User: Fold this.
Amino acid sequence: EWCGACKRAKRYFNAKGIPFQERDIDLSTRARKEFERLGGRGVPLILVGKRKLSGFSPVSFDQLYDR
Assistant:
């Protein structure tokens, strides 16, 4: 709820019709453990296949997503 980058990512994904699953590491112990297991260092932690992106910018995401 508090994460500005997470909100921007969700708006971007919705605008582009990109499906996503949201997991809140503040509300879910399971999500927090998964975040830690994946080596998460910042939010949002975005996964595309086996590739990871910490934080969000449209340019960084497009480079990750287009590969």
Notes: The longest helix spans residues 4-16. The chain is about 45% helix and 10% strand. The chain has a mean pLDDT of 92. The first strand starts at residue 45 and ends at 48.
